[in-house]
Design a protein that fits this description.
The structure is a homodimer. By secondary structure, chain A is mainly alpha-helical. Chain A has 2 domains: 56 residues, no CATH class; 131 residues, Tetracycline Repressor, domain 2 (Orthogonal Bundle), CATH 1.10.357. Helices cover 67% and strands 0% of the residues of chain A. Chain A is elongated and about 70 Å long. At the A-B interface, helix 6, helix 7 and helix 8 of A face helix 6, helix 7 and helix 8 of B. The first copy, chain A, binds a DNA duplex through helix 2.
Amino acid sequence: MPAEKPETRPYHHGDLRSALLAAAERTLRDKGSASLSLRELARDLGVSHAAPGRHFKDKQALLNALALVGYDRMAEALEAADEPGLPLQERLTVLARTYLGFAIDNAELLELMYARKHEPDAAEQMAAAIDRTVGALERAVAAAQQRGEIVDGDPEQLTLVVGTSLHGLASLAVTGKFTTEDAMAAVSGLVHHLMYGLKPR
Amino acid sequence: MPAEKPETRPYHHGDLRSALLAAAERTLRDKGSASLSLRELARDLGVSHAAPGRHFKDKQALLNALALVGYDRMAEALEAADEPGLPLQERLTVLARTYLGFAIDNAELLELMYARKHEPDAAEQMAAAIDRTVGALERAVAAAQQRGEIVDGDPEQLTLVVGTSLHGLASLAVTGKFTTEDAMAAVSGLVHHLMYGLKPR
DNA sequence: GCATGAATGTAGACGCCGCCAACAATGCTG
DNA sequence: CAGCATTGTTGGCGGCGTCTACATTCATGC
């Protein structure tokens, strides 16, 4: 046994799975999803080209796991930003800005999260993750409704109205239809119109 | 020179570019964007694996062209469905249903259209195509505003509110968050809330 | 009509990729 | 410490996108 540096990479990496996810997220951010290959991740981490296969049965499995990480992050961000005490209009504005900010900062990751690729069983986990994400919106709407701040009606339906608008704005912002500033600036107007509608009062 | 059938595929295909786009669209619909390869398209059309390279400098160029085809189709569908005589609420409902229907029928194509991949120069053509698509919405909003049917204010801002909502709904429907029926059923409620807002009147 | 250059299609090669199977090193548990 | 599951390695397979060199056809001007 030659006296090599004691910390020459041991045969086992220790936590290759997490390292792969982290490296993948970084690559995604830096170079886009197109140039995300398992072999390159393996090279970056100094393991063999087949090592990732021990932790993800195929590439899609890694992408699924990555998407779940994304949902976790997003739900955290929304829950941290939410201020239950605010009236709905302000509360929605905060949530919208948070969502929009996350979307812009994690465009490629978001694309993965909303990709329609993970069908068989991962779809369930995704659905659960989405529910958690939408939870902040649902709570905000329900609270406002209880306070009599907004109209009666199926709260799910109301959440849908708000949710589609925010999601649509984020989606357009991410695909480059707006600059970050324009999108952010549009938020307050958007929320205002959601509250008061297009019909004159 | 053996007497083969006179119509054995001639050396030149005739309209390989169009054929490639058509085949690609079919493959996209049938088997998804994942399994869309230039080589397979070439095989399907009975040409050599390098022939597509004569018409599209690389795979992304074909995808860009495909996206433009998609925008054309969508704009056509919206323009055909639009009924300028209707009051805004009904008019929006019709447009929303049309957009939603197109989105569901052409999910993979839409994904391409909204992909954030075509940056350098194709982005301009895309932007123009999007403008045409949004045109129907803009006209509907402007007309309603002129009739005094809806509130004053920057028409672009109002169009944005409507556009984000519809786009968000379509986006969620396409990614499988709703069934087709649920999404379609949600349209009228969505448009209603857009018109009258969440605040009680 | 026919030469000649531009379009278009073909054949082959290169390097990358995802995935698989066989084998090696390590960790864990009785 | 034996034995087994886990994790990593090596090598190979076929498919892919792209490039280059070459072949065929088309079209244009004379």
